[in-house]
From TrEMBL:
All copies of domain BIG2, residue ranges: 435-515
Signal sequence region: none
Organism: Paenibacillus brasilensis
Name of the featured protein: Exopolysaccharide biosynthesis protein
Pfam families listed in its UniProt record: Cu_amine_oxidN1, NAGPA
Matches recorded under SUPFAM superfamilies: Copper amine oxidase, domain N (SSF55383), Invasin/intimin cell-adhesion fragments (SSF49373)
Length: 905
């Protein structure tokens, strides 16, 4: 992330493992609280041991647990209560006095600038035990940090001439500092003349204190082999003179032009312009000897710092904490405001500990403001600390005990996607190979009934580094085989509950708790697209996904469900539903799969296709216009010839430029003026081919239904790809009355974190289709009016009276009716399960499960809370009238004076 995306400098440059799981683990009688690797299942935070921090100044910060990463480095987890809700912070505390651990700066690929790489990629390449993202950088430039950098004791980049930019450094004797630094350097020619060096390995930018408009104007910069790109820097509006120096001697001079080469390992290139170029032409001729000298200077004290005396240094942004207190920002924070994921560095009062801080923003954490980050840092004991790049760049990777590679510690703002950045801070161990100390179990923390778990037994030595256990024989045992069974080394979920899984080898053992999920933990269950064709021989893909109440998304093989087929005979195997035959006269079929009683449903319709083509843009006869919500946003929307995979077809292309806008900005491709294009049939999902621009913007579609209500479809929360791919988006949760109209396809650039997303770009759309369940919801359903009266065992349907065996009643302000007679009148059916006290109601495209005494309903595979529950009276099940009838597409009217209920469909 950069400070802004405006044009900069004289070059005029334009501005997973899914998550780490935590559990309590007992090893050799010692209680450890820490992360245990698994398959992506998230353990709820109420499973943590919450420990208030005795020294917390705010009372908002609670320590949840910690784990040793390696000798001298500990990963700690905190909960922070902020203005927007609860945030989670992951903090690596590094003991700078421990001889076996150190901090250093990771850089791009192969340790070079202009190569950008993810935090995880840099950690893997360099063997880091842990790491976080580092300095700010111009996202539109080559890929070099804005601040200074020292890696492995070598100066790689110098501080920029910008106000209030701090850096974090550690000397070779382990002393940390957070200061503002300046750079001073000199080039001395063989003839005794000299010229000032302006900096090292810098992209172009606009200086703020020197009075110059352009960083490289009339200046001399040194570029080393750490700069991989051929151009130094790119997109130059001025013509440089470049001088190649090898082994202290000038070997090439390129007058008024770049050398068009990478910097060799045995030398460096001096990039000069204006007055500096005049000096180079006169004094730096081929064969001349050249000497360079430079140092850093601390702004606050004026003292010189020899870069070779530093172990590491990385640039950042504003100072946040000083002398253990929140301090005024040293630089404007307008462009990095809001509640975001955050990264920071700091150290303790005694200078023994460095703190590497990352605050999450994801489904489990709301993020923090800069002010809240200051409070958090103060609470955990930071004496002096500064801000690093944040938002979508915030990434932490850590290595679990026994593992050899650092993996993503938590989901980033963009899920498991790790942004490519210019540098990061790595934690490294130099400990020798030790003796075996303990073991950990890695594997599933949660299982489903019938699901096989994958577990491994890993060792670590007395320095907490991986220990090879490949030749160790392990015995597995379950504390409750009825819940979790173990047979031949295979661990399997048997029934809902919790069991302790123990792995033993000799006198050493490790345990972990495994929970088998039951229906009570599930919030939704879906099978494929939820629709299909009711025709003999039809085959429908039905991969099953369960979503739990605590946010896990777990794939289940369809064979693990108990299936029931209504209206047809069929079978399910290997995630595929096959229709063997269709019952006579049936137009709507139901395939109901149950996991521990919780239902998923597939609706099948006779003669209806599962997917219908809707718009391929080959013969568009209606107008398409570009519009926006902000006057400064410009662009075009038009049907054009496609490219790439769509080169032989026409596509709808949307170009946008938001550089002159502000706030939340939209770029719309508007279909058919304000009218939109009509979608006649009810749709459960949309499919569209999209050419992405990797802008990280939000992609949406807007519909207007038959009642004039607007509905929005999220096609992609983040456009994080280039080129064509097919997007499928669920529409089943949208309450749309048809016919509806697709009015707009559009890109959104929200205000928060706007500096991270591109304000210019272009996307394209092709082959829009909707999944339409055909006749589901209409066949066999009846229209008309029915009336019932409280306490009377009679019912009038379209004016014809009929007897019923249970009278409607009221209880606690709710009206209850025998559902059987409602379905007889309007179409549909109900099934009663006495064992589970569950009534299942089917009508058209609705399947509803209600349980006696439970204030909830499972509607088309999704659990919903209700205010009332079904009851049993005199052997007849009565259901809440308004809840059921409105979900089944009926209207209800109540006449208070006569106690009469009128139903219409």
């Amino acid at each position: 992330m950069f400070l802004s995306n405006r044009k900069q400098g004289n070059e005029k440059v334009d501005g997973r493992r899914i998550a780490k799981k935590w559990a309590v683990l007992t090893l050799a009688g010692v209680l450890w609280v820490g992360p245990v690797a698994g398959t992506g299942a998230l353990i709820p935070l109420n499973g943590w041991m919450s420990v208030p921090i005795a020294s917390a100044a705010s009372g908002a910060t609670v320590k949840l647990g910690e784990e040793i990463l390696t000798s001298g480095a500990t990963l700690m987890k905190y909960r922070f209560k902020g203005s927007k809700g609860t945030a989670l912070a992951d903090i690596i505390r590094v003991d700078l006095q421990n001889p076996y651990v150190k901090l250093d700066v990771m850089t791009g690929k192969n340790g070079q600038f202009t190569t950008r790489q993810s935090t995880g990629g840099m950690a893997k390449e360099t063997g880091a035990v842990a790491g976080v993202n580092g300095d700010y950088f111009n996202t539109s430039s080559e890929g070099a940090p804005i601040g200074g950098q020292v890696s492995k004791g070598v100066l790689m980049s110098t501080p920029s001439d910008l106000t209030g930019m701090y850096a974090f450094a550690v000397t070779k004797d382990g002393s940390p500092m957070v200061e503002q630094f300046t750079f001073e350097g000199t080039v001395k020619a063989g003839d005794g003349s000299s010229f000032s060096l302006a900096g090292m390995n810098k992209a172009s930018y606009t200086p703020e204190t020197s009075g110059s408009s352009y960083s490289h104007s009339n200046a001399m910069y040194i570029y080393t082999s750490a700069w991989k790109a051929v151009e130094r820097p790119k997109n130059s509006s001025t013509t440089p003179t470049e001088v190649l120096v090898q082994n202290g001697v000038v070997t090439q001079v390129s007058s008024n032009a770049g050398l068009n080469m990478t910097v060799p390992q045995d030398g460096y290139i001096l990039r000069t312009h204006g007055k500096a170029a005049e000096y180079a032409k006169e004094h730096l001729t081929v064969g001349q000897t050249v000497e360079t000298s430079y140092h850093l200077r601390v702004k606050s004290t004026g003292s010189e710092v020899d870069p070779s005396n530093l172990q590491m240094m990385i640039g950042g942004h504003t100072i946040l904490v000083n002398d253990g207190q929140k301090t005024s920002y040293s630089r404007s924070t307008t462009s990095i405001g809001g509640t975001r994921a955050r990264t920071a560095l700091g150290y303790s009062r005694d200078k023994r500990y460095a703190y590497v801080i990352a605050v999450e923003k994801n489904g489990n954490s709301v993020g923090v403001s800069l002010s809240e980050l200051q409070t958090l840092m103060q609470d955990i004991g930071v004496w002096k600390g500064m801000n690093l790049d944040g938002g979508g760049s915030t990434t932490m990777v850590t290595r679990d005990l026994g593992d050899t590679t650092a993996e993503l510690t938590f989901n980033t703002e963009y899920g498991t996607e790790q942004r490519s950045i210019v540098n990061g801070v790595g934690v490294y161990t130099s400990a020798p190979k030790g003796t075996l100390k303990g073991f950990t179990i890695k594997g599933n923390k949660t299982l489903l009934i019938g699901q096989t778990g994958s577990y491994s037994f890993k060792g670590y030595d007395n320095y907490y580094n991986p220990f090879d256990t490949s030749k160790v024989q392990v015995t597995w045992k379950s504390s409750n085989p009825a819940v979790v069974s173990v047979s031949g080394g295979v661990v399997k979920g048997a029934k809902p509950g919790t069991a302790t899984l123990t792995a033993s080898s000799g006198s050493a053992s490790a345990t972990t708790k495994v929970t088998v999920l039951g229906a009570d933990e599930i919030s939704s269950l879906t099978a494929g697209s939820g629709t299909g064709s009711l025709a003999a021989g039809a085959k429908i893909a039905v991969p099953v996904t369960a979503k739990t109440k605590d946010g896990q998304s777990v794939s289940i093989t369809s064979d693990a469900l108990k299936w029931e087929f209504i209206g047809f005979k069929g079978s399910v195997k290997d995630n595929q539903l096959t229709v063997n035959s269709v019952d006579s006269g049936v137009k709507t079929g139901y395939a109901i799969g149950r996991y521990d009683g919780f239902s998923a449903v597939v609706f099948l319709s006779a003669g209806g296709e599962s997917t219908s083509d809707w718009e391929d843009f080959e013969n568009v006869s209606y107008p398409i216009d570009f519009t926006s919500n902000v006057a400064g946003v410009t662009g075009t929307a038009a049907v054009v010839q496609g490219d790439g995979d769509h080169a032989n077809s026409k596509v709808l292309e949307l170009n946008y430029d938001m550089t002159n806008g502000s706030g939340k900005m939209y770029a719309y491709a508007q279909l058919n003026g304000t009218s939109g294009k009509t979608l006649e049939k009810a749709a459960s999902s949309i499919s569209v081919d999209v050419r992405g621009d990797k802008s990280l913007n939000w992609l949406r579609a807007e519909l207007e239904d038959a009642q004039g209500q607007t509905a929005y479809i999220d096609l992609a929360k983040v456009i994080d790809w280039n080129g064509w791919k097919t997007i499928n988006a669920d529409m089943s949760g949208l309450k749309i009355s048809y016919p509806a109209k697709l009015k707009r396809l559009y890109v959104v650039n929200v205000a928060e974190g706007q500096d991270e997303r591109a304000k210019t770009g272009n996307v394209a759309f092709d082959n829009i289709s909707f999944n339409t369940p055909g006749t589901v919801g209409t066949e066999g359903l009846k229209k008309g009016t029915a009336q019932m009266t409280i306490g009377q065992k009679s019912m009038s349907v379209n004016g014809v009276a009929t007897a019923i065996d249970a009278a409607p009643m009221t209880r606690n302000g709710a009206t209850y009716v025998p559902i059987k007679y409602v379905l007889d009148a309007f179409g549909g059916q109900a099934k009663w399960n006495a064992g589970d006290q569950r009534i299942t109601i089917m009508r058209g495209g609705v399947l509803m499960d209600l349980t006696v005494g439970k204030k909830e309903v499972v509607l088309n595979g999704k659990r919903q809370s209700t205010d009332v529950a079904p009851i049993v009276l005199d052997g007849r099940t009565l259901v809440p009238l308004r809840l059921v009838s409105e979900q089944l597409g009926m209207t209800v009217k109540w006449e208070q004076e006569t106690k009469t209920i009128t139903l219409q469909s």
